[in-house]
Specification:
This protein is α+β, with helices and mostly antiparallel strands and 661 residues long. It contains 13 helices and 29 strands. It folds into three domains: 120 residues; 271 residues, 3-Layer(aba) Sandwich (Rossmann fold), CATH 3.40.50.410; 89 residues, no CATH class. The strands form eight sheets. Strands 8, 9, 10, 11, 12, 13, 15 and 20 form an eight-stranded antiparallel β-sheet that branches. The longest helix has 47 residues.
Length: 661
């Protein structure tokens, strides 16, 4: 070992040489020295771990609060507007999930922005103090978070099933319910308009179908547009059937013949010649017959005599046998007209019963003639003016209009409302069965996707102009009541992309009418939203992206059936398609239709349709709640503003809300 002067141990004093030698050789206590030397870097390592761990926990909590804030703000955003409501809701959720100074962080204010259409962005920046790293000059650590939330819409198809029954004309808290509905639909449209634009810009789509319903639905034009063969050509209606077989003969005069000249056998006075010309008796003359032939239906004839000097009678004409005395030759003229008899058959009686009617022209939307009055006897007592046919028999109103004469007619066109196709035997669907809500195979009417292949599976055009009810429990009657004013709601519309103007025009035209049959509305809502059936409008994917399907079902009342009205299942007291009873109680008939409603809701959900149910100014029943896809998708609404808010909320939630950053 060298000293500072280059010398070794020999250069050191003797006492130092002994201490240093001993120290160099003695290793006891070295660990303490090493540990002491390592404490400084070790403290730095442990301190950074502790402080970084606290910072990590704070950052995680801060990020979660940010995510919740962005989602909350986007959920309440309406009309794609960053309003104070959105900002306040986002900040409220942020502060709830990360209160100020948590983990001793510095105070900060979350910033809420709208970086792009349909997106809410939340950012926050703060600092957290260090504990051990402070001794190394690091007093705080930065914490920064950013998160975006938007609606994650895929292709979206929405069917609005809207109750437009008569009660929608009533006021609720000062606003007519149908007006509130119009406003709510437009609020939904406005809520989703930015999303529609986004989807379309990316080759995807957002579409709406609409099914207004009451005691039936107006889908005739849609069915015909898919295939006219899906509508029956011959349909049995409860109608009135006249019998025309009272035989009547009515003279049918022919064309008058050429004038016939007759010369009296001897000379006569001028006054007697005048009487002869008129075919009036005088002492030496008896009148000639003025008619002959017959009786009906054998042919007959008639004669017309005239005393007109120019064309009827001549007394002592030039060249006559005797012209020189007060008695001269006399001649007269008459015209003979042949007559035949027309055989006619007049009205005899009318019965009210079921009758098959050919509707092949009517179902195509063509106007058809319908006899107005079946007992078409004239009031003047003249058989010639009575309504008649030339072939005796029984006629329906269309046949009589085509074959009858002197009969008042109306020109009518189908309004598009339908009678449903054949259903099952009433014993198979009661208010409580089937308990598993399975649709019987023979209930063709409830089969959402069945494509017609027989008359039993085809739909039927309603024909109110010829529909008549009669006494319950009878198959025929001599009196009946016209149902020509049967309710028919506005025409349904298949899935399509709407402009705001088109949607506004459509909802403005909705008019309250008819009774409440929830089952027929839900049934056609599902048909217009199915990937199968006669429309197949909503495929599982479009442009390689999935399609989300939603039904928004809004009603202002409970099931309200009537066995005496004309609706989608005819006249129940006469047709007995649903109950099998001549006059079921309202409770019984309501129960049967409610069971059908349950079955259709169940079937619709099996087609991956999400159902939202709104009870507007009425009780939200268990059946309504169960029809919805979940309890959160069923609501009771009591006024216009709440209805608008609910439709907006549905629009806001109809897609999957997601974080995009």
């Amino acid at each position: 070992m060298l000293n500072g002067n280059g010398g070794g141990d020999a250069a050191l004093p003797a006492h130092r040489k002994g201490f240093l030698t001993r120290l160099a050789r003695d290793v006891r206590g070295n660990t303490l020295a090493i540990v002491g030397a390592a404490l400084v870097p070790l403290a730095g390592m442990i301190g950074s771990g502790v402080d970084m761990s606290r910072a990590y926990m704070a950052k995680t909590r801060l990020q979660s609060a940010c995510d919740a804030a962005a989602l909350a703000g986007r959920r309440v955003m309406t009309d794609d507007t960053l309003s104070a409501t959105v900002t306040n809701e986002a900040v409220r959720f942020f502060n709830f999930n990360f209160r100020q100074n948590l983990y001793q962080t510095e105070s900060f204010t979350p910033v809420v922005t709208r970086p792009s259409s349909g997106t809410v962005r939340v950012t926050a920046s703060t600092r957290i103090p260090t504990s051990i790293m402070r001794i190394f000059g690091f007093t705080t650590l930065p914490l920064n978070v950013t998160c975006d939330a938007s609606l994650n819409f895929v292709n979206t198809d929405v069917t609005l099933v809207l109750d437009v029954t008569g009660s929608m004309a009533d006021n609720l808290n000062g606003t007519q319910k149908i007006v509130a509905l119009r406003d709510a639909v437009m609020a939904l449209y406005d809520q989703l308009a930015p999303v529609q634009t986004q989807l379309e810009s990316n080759g995807l789509r957002l579409r709406y179908a609409v099914v207004p319903y009451s005691s039936t639905v107006n889908v005739g034009a849609l069915i015909r547009g898919a295939n006219p063969a899906y509508l029956a050509d011959n349909v049995e209606f409860q109608t009135r059937v006249p019998r025309y077989d009272t035989l009547t003969y009515v003279a049918d005069p022919g064309t008058p013949g050429a004038p016939v000249v007759e010369i009296y056998g001897s000379a006569i006075t001028q006054s007697d010649c005048d009487l002869y010309g008129q075919n009036v008796a005088f002492p030496s003359f008896s009148p000639s017959p003025t008619s002959g032939g017959g009786p009906a239906p054998n042919p007959s004839w008639s004669r017309v005599y005239s005393n007109n000097e120019a064309s009827g009678v001549d007394w002592g004409w030039s060249g006559a046998p005797d012209t020189n005395s007060n008695k001269r030759s006399c001649r007269r003229r008459y015209v003979q007209t042949p007559e035949t008899w027309e055989t006619r058959y007049r009205w005899t009686s009318t019965s009210y019963e079921a009758e098959s009617v050919n509707v092949s022209a009517y179902k195509m939307g063509n106007s058809v003639d319908v006899a107005n009055t079946l007992d078409s006897r004239s009031s003047d007592g003249n058989d010639a003016n009575d309504g008649y046919v030339t072939t005796p028999g029984v006629y329906d109103a269309l046949e009589l209009a085509q074959s009858g004469h002197n009969i008042a007619e109306s020109n009518v066109t189908w309004n598009g409302c339908i009678e449903e196709r054949q259903t099952s035997n009433p014993t198979l669907i009661t208010p409580t069965t089937p308990s598993n809500l399975a649709i019987p195979a023979t209930a063709y009417d409830l089969d959402i996707n069945l494509i017609p292949n027989s008359d039993e599976t085809r739909w039927r055009p309603m024909f109110p102009a010829i529909e008549y009810s009669r006494t319950a429990g009878t198959t025929t009657a001599t009196t009946g009541s016209s149902l020509s004013s049967a309710a028919c709601p506005a025409a349904a519309v298949r899935l399509q992309a709407w402009t705001r103007g088109n949607m506004q025009s459509y909802v403005n035209a909705l008019v309250p009418t008819g009774s409440t049959y929830h089952d027929i509305g839900m049934l056609w809502g599902a048909r217009l939203l199915s990937s199968g059936g006669i429309f197949a409008d909503s495929p599982d994917t479009f442009a390689s992206m999935p399609v989300a399907r939603h039904i928004i079902f809004m009603t202002d009342g409970q099931m309200d059936t009537d066995p005496g009205i004309y609706g989608s299942y005819g006249i129940e007291k006469n047709d007995q398609r649903i109950s099998g009873m001549s006059f079921p109680s309202e409770t019984e008939l309501n129960g049967r239709h409610l069971q059908r409603f349950r079955m259709i809701c169940n079937a619709a959900k099996s087609l991956n349709i999400s159902i939202w149910v709104i009870a507007f100014g009425t009780t939200l029943t268990t059946d309504m709640t169960n029809c919805a896809s979940n309890a959160n998708q069923a609501a009771t609404i009591s006024n216009r503003d709440a209805l608008i808010a609910k439709f907006r909320e549905i629009g806001n939630n109809i897609g999957a809300l997601r974080l995009t950053q």
